[in-house]
């Protein structure tokens, strides 16, 4: 019976298949007959061409960022009362953000609208439009930002889009007048204008595209009159050549929308994207201060804030080869313009003041890893690490722009001022005068040999041309900093720990504290004693896990203290100890409590120089009743989500800038941090 059933079923399927074939054949014959046998009727029946889906659909919203090079020109006239004029050109790196919407038509034409904001580089000279000096005034014009709202018209072919663009432009500027008599006078101005340009864009993944674009903007004349009576008039045009990265955003209900889509999914295993944003506000009430110097913490109550926004774009180049790019937009002010305390309260407060966001290529480097076989370990994806398996026994080389602290002086509990401790002498070894510009970055090359129980690291880094500078000494290898670190990994009562021992030496064009003091004719100007000198020091850095939720850490750092600080802060010896506690015990496993203290000191030569009225990068009260600077910091980081953390922080600073005549200071901070 089963056999009979199977036979009948087979016959039925055959009949149905033949029937459908017959229907198709008859339909085809009928259409052919109509088309061939009746030309007039065939002509009256148009055939619809099949719809061909484009290789990439440009339709929809998108967001992205860009970087590149900007060049502006201006003609300015200052009347005060005699007219003086200048033609000026300014240029430098730029960076910004954009967002827009495209409509991709079946013909291949793409219509769109886009808005963008572009910011100049953080180096001041890159944003100075013009400087004019008259009989009674000096006026400086600075560009804060430029933006556009434009239409786009393009044609798409495959994964490529060629387009032209044009529309409204605007630029934000600040004019500062320094008259012969009286305080500075400031004027904020926004210029309208127009913009036009063209570009080419390539879609390399279902939701990602990269572009190259040229944009020209011309703005209306700006006429400014200051309270002193000085009048300033100027023109402005601005050209940009920039590359950009865009991410399509699918809205619910759109053709390409997929629920639970991660906007940061790179849609490829060859590259990764991470990002972060941190807003940090700090303030303190008034404190006792019988006198105040040039680099003193202002005794009156004050509050300041910083805001940083970062992307981390990491890509695999070849076997073991990787490239890392970290653009950032930085804005804000440190307390008292980031002076007044050697162990400064905020690691987000760079030694620069940015009333508007400024662009910086904070990191751009290549990394090559050579595996020697044997046991492997998994490296987790991170802001400066591509995920993947590597040999435990390996050699890693790195070269480019980054921070010394990216490779050296790691610590699981006190390292990241955007997530844990904020004080300079707690998240870093205070007496390690590591090579850097005013934002804490430099150019260098490093090598790391990693084994299961230890790692050996070494590196060379370019150092500032002078103390506290954004310019580097280009006498490579003759001037610079050499760093070596041995990291040993151990078990204490079955809990993991690490000890890092660092030695460093810097060859720099630096001044001597004692030589400056010994020559009264120098009037404490240490720059007049600058010549090639050596500065050296060491760091001991330990971290110890106590339980899965509790960790201890400590750092002891020292330098010889004979020559001026080149990059970091006015500390010649520093001891810090602390603990980090996760909130598992009270049902908040993603929360963290941190408690730490630091004691900072100066060498004899350094303290004598400051006591005589000398100035360091961060300190200088005009006189000094020397005591060691003591800092207590505690924070609670409350996890709002897996990606967003709100932190309350308190710091108690005794003897700020080593001066027992001033303080103590109570610093209160709030930090909102998000990352992906």
UniProtKB/TrEMBL annotation:
One of its GO terms (cellular component) is cell outer membrane. Its main location: membrane. GO terms for molecular function: porin activity. Belongs to the OprB family. It holds the Pfam family OprB. Residues 33-246 form the Outer membrane protein beta-barrel domain. Keywords: Cell outer membrane, Membrane, Signal. This is Outer membrane beta-barrel protein. Gene3D superfamilies: 2.40.160.20, Carbohydrate-selective porin OprB (2.40.160.180). It comes from the Bacteria. It is found in: Cell outer membrane. GO terms for biological process: carbohydrate transport. It comes from Bradyrhizobium archetypum.
């Amino acid at each position: 019976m089963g056999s009979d059933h199977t036979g009948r079923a087979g016959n039925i399927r055959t009949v149905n298949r033949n029937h459908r074939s017959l229907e198709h054949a008859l339909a085809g014959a009928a259409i052919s007959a109509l088309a061939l046998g009746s030309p007039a009727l065939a002509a009256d029946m148009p055939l619809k061409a099949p719809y061909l889906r484009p290789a990439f659909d440009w339709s929809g919203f998108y967001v992205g960022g860009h970087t590149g090079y900007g060049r502006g020109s201006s003609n300015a006239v200052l009347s005060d009362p005699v007219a003086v004029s200048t033609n000026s050109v300014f240029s430098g790196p730029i960076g910004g953000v954009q967002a827009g919407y495209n409509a991709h038509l079946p013909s291949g034409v793409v219509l769109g609208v886009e808005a963008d904001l572009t910011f100049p580089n953080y180096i001041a000279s890159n944003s100075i439009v013009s400087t004019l000096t008259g009989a009674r005034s000096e006026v400086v014009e600075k560009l804060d930002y430029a933006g556009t709202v434009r239409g786009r018209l393009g044609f798409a072919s495959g994964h490529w889009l060629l387009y032209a663009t044009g529309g409204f432009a605007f630029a934000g500027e600040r004019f500062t007048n320094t008259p012969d008599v009286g305080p500075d006078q400031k004027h904020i101005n926004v210029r309208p204008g127009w913009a036009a340009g063209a570009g080419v864009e390539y879609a390399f993944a279902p939701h990602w595209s990269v572009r190259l674009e040229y944009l020209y903007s011309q703005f209306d004349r700006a006429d400014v009159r200051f309270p002193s009576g000085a009048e300033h008039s100027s023109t402005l045009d601005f050209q940009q050549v920039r590359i950009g990265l865009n991410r399509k955003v699918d809205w619910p209900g759109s053709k390409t929308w997929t629920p639970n889509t991660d906007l940061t999914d790179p849609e490829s295993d060859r590259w990764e994207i991470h990002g972060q944003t941190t807003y940090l506000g700090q303030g303190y009430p008034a404190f006792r201060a019988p006198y105040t110097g040039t680099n003193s913490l202002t005794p009156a109550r004050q509050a300041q804030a910083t805001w940083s926004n970062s992307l981390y774009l990491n890509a695999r180049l070849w076997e073991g080869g990787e490239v890392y790019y970290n653009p950032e937009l930085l804005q804000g002010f440190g307390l008292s313009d980031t002076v007044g305390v050697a162990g400064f309260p905020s690691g987000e407060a760079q030694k620069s003041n940015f009333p508007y966001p400024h662009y910086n290529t904070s990191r751009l480097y290549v990394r090559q890893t050579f595996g020697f076989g044997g046991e492997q370990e998994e490296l987790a994806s991170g802001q400066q690490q591509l995920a993947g398996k590597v040999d435990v026994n390996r050699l890693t080389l790195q070269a480019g722009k980054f921070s010394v602290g990216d490779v050296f002086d790691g610590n699981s509990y006190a390292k990241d001022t955007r997530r844990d401790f904020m004080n300079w002498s707690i998240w870093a070894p205070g007496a390690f005068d590591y090579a850097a510009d005013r934002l804490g970055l430099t150019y260098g090359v490093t090598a790391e040999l990693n084994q299961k129980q230890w790692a050996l690291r070494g590196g060379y880094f370019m150092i500032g041309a002078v103390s506290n500078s954004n310019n580097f000494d280009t006498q490579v290898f003759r001037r610079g900093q050499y760093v070596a670190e041995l990291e040993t990994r151990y078990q204490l009562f079955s809990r993991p720990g690490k000890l890092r021992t660092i030695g460093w030496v810097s060859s720099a064009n630096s001044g001597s504290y004692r030589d400056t003091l010994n020559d009264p004719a120098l009037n404490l100007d240490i720059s007049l004693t600058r010549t090639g000198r050596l500065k050296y020091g060491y760091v001991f850095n330990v971290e110890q896990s106590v339980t899965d939720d509790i960790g201890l850490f400590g750092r002891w750092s020292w330098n010889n203290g004979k020559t001026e600080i080149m990059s970091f802060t006015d500390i010649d010896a520093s001891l810090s100890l602390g603990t980090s506690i996760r909130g598992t015990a009270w049902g908040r496993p993603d929360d963290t409590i941190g408690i730490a203290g630091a004691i900072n000191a100066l060498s004899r030569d350094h303290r004598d120089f400051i006591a005589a009225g000398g100035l360091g990068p961060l300190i200088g009260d005009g006189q000094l009743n020397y005591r060691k600077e003591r800092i207590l910091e505690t924070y609670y980081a409350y996890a709002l989500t897996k990606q967003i953390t709100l932190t309350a922080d308190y710091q108690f600073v005794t003897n700020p800038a080593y001066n027992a005549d001033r303080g103590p200071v109570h610093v209160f901070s709030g930090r909102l941090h998000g990352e992906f």
